Amino acid sequence: MSIEDLRAVALFDGLGDDQLHELLTDGEELRFNPGEELFHEAHPADHWWVLLEGSISLIRLVGHEETVLGAMSSPGQWAGGFQAWDPHGIYLATARGAAPGRVLRVPAERLRDRANAWFPFGVHLIKGLVSTVRNIESMARQREALVALGTLAAGLAHEMNNPASAATRAVDALEDTCEVLLSSLGRLAESQISAAQFIELDRLRREGEAESASVDPLGVADREDALADWLEGHGVERSWLVAPPLAAAGLDIEWCERVAALLGDAPLGAGLEWVASSLSTATLLSEMKESTRRISDLVAAVKSYSQLDRASMQQMDLTEGIESTLVMLAHKLQGGISVVRDYGNDVPRIEAIAGELNQVWTNLIDNAIDAMGGTGALRVSTRVDENGVVVEIGDTGPGMPKEVQARAFEPFYTTKDVGKGTGLGLDISRRIIVDRHGGEITIESRPGETVIRVRLPLRPPPAP
Fold first, then answer.
1. More confident residue, 212 or 9
2. Is 410 helix (H, G, I), strand (E, B) or coil?
3. 413 vs 327 pLDDT, higher one
4. Is the pLDDT reported for residue 249 higher than 60?
5. Do 331 and 376 belong to one domain?
6. C-alpha distances in angstroms, 430 versus 34, 364, 435?
């Protein structure tokens, strides 16, 4: 490799022949082939790598899979060498040859020495910039992650609280009901009720299970009052425990009279308590089943949202991802916000990183909810596009001014009050959609309506 080779690289414009000669002396030319690894993620960045020819893929390990972050394909692009400015500097990705080529590799300590000799003031600026950017980026990312995690955790806890509380109440009530059931059954046994009588009583009980209770609360209340009066008139001591389950099951006075005729000398109260507690047990079990099913559905939604058991890049259903996100944000949709769903029936599955797209939907839906201030309509829609699919998240908020639209995707830009938001949501969304999936994200806004439109290809473009 000669000085003329370095002269052809725009990166070295402004350096004299002596300086270029020093670089050649300090460094070495390395040739690489496709698949050959040049440096590894998280290892000390003890060399500075400058591309002269060919192409290099930059790869990061995400979970248990390798993900291509980008590529070096233009002469003069460089990577590594961070230990020239930071003794703890590491490679942020793994470099692997994509097309045959060559690089100039310079040890980081030699790069630091040359930089200090050639432009010492610039070295001070670089060190300060590296330190400042790293601290700001780290704090901002950490804060955003904690805020998002706290919001989702609070929402999930809120959503789980209702079915969990309902299941707890049902279990407590079931304990008391089972005691009444066993007690009444024992009293019937003591009265020496015949097998034929008990079989007939059980048949009458099943009539209550088969009856459709009135959906009119007033009708149920009237039937309960009438049953309570009849029970008291026939000497049933705990009529307040017996009447509600019978009324809810659609049973009436005529049915009670049939039971009284059946039991004869056997205690009527014990027979009716056994029927009522049996009906209550079935109702409570149904409530427990529904409550635990709801909890199971929430866990399934979290599992779908987090994509913990799935590959990073996969064939995914956009509707499933959006719905799991709506479940995670359900606590913010209560009150005056309605959700209008408009999912296309012919929208195909796409190849994408589902967990990252769910992060996009979270950012966009959360922003839309905040924009409406607690009242309005959230519209989520999907449809087929000419070369892929389109997802739209719309809200009926006040709209976004032109100057805000122009800067909405800038890092750290925000219009929210201090302590609300990080300014990173739309920037991250843009990078996930555009850089990671080869898609497009745009904003259309006017007073009373804002729509963020995401276009995604059926599969991301191949890595360079």
1. 9
2. coil
3. 327
4. yes
5. yes
6. 30, 11, 8
Flag whether 376 is in a domain.
yes
Tens digits of per-residue pLDDT, 40-84?
Answer: 988 888 999 999 999 999 988 765 577 788 889 999 898 888 888
Indicate the pairing of strand 313-316 with strand 388-395: unpaired
Residue 212 clears pLDDT 70, i.e. is over it: no
Cα gap 158→461, rounded to integer Å: 40
Q: What are phi and psi of 334, to 5 degrees?
A: -80, 160
Is the separation of the CB atoms in 118 and 79 below 8 Å? no
Residue 390 in domain: yes
Residue 266 lies in a domain: yes
Q: Which residue has the tokens 């000085």?
A: 3
Rounded CA separation 415/244 (Å): 56
Determine, yes or no, domain membership for 157: no
Most confidently modeled range among 164-168, 283-287, 375-379, 422-426:
375-379
Whether residues 172 and 35 fall in one domain: no
Task: Identify whether the C-beta of residue 389 lies closer than 8 Å to the C-beta of residue 352.
Answer: no
What does the H/E/C string look like for 125-159?
A: HHHHHHHHHHHHHHHHHHHHHHHHHHHHHHHHHHH
- Domain assignment of residue 253, given as a range: 162-294
Give the number of other Cβ atoms within 10 Å of residue 327's Cβ.
Answer: 20
Q: What is the rounded CA–CA span in Å between residue 227 and residue 237?
A: 13
Please state the length of the chain. 464
Lowest mean pLDDT among 108-112, 281-285, 408-412, 440-444: 408-412
**Do 320 and 400 fall into the same domain?**
yes
Sheet holding 388-395, edge to edge: 336-343, 375-385, 388-395, 449-457, 440-446
pLDDT at 354: 82
Asked if 380 and 396 touch (Cβ cutoff 8 Å), the reply is no
Contact 39, 99 (CB under 8 A): no
Looking up residue 345, the CATH number of its domain turns out to be 3.30.565.10
Residue 361, classed as helix, strand or coil, is helix
119 φ, ψ (degrees, to nearest 5):
-150, 75
Give the C-alpha separation, 315 to 337, whole Å: 32
Same domain, 86 and 170: no
Q: Which of 244, 268, 294 is the last residue of a domain?
A: 294
Distance CA 424, CA 413 (A): 7
**Total domain count for the chain?**
3
**Same domain, yes or no, for 323 and 451?**
yes
- φ, ψ dihedrals at 410, nearest 5°: -80, 140
In tens, the pLDDT along 421-450 reads: 434 468 778 888 888 888 999 999 999 999
d(CA 349, CA 332): 28
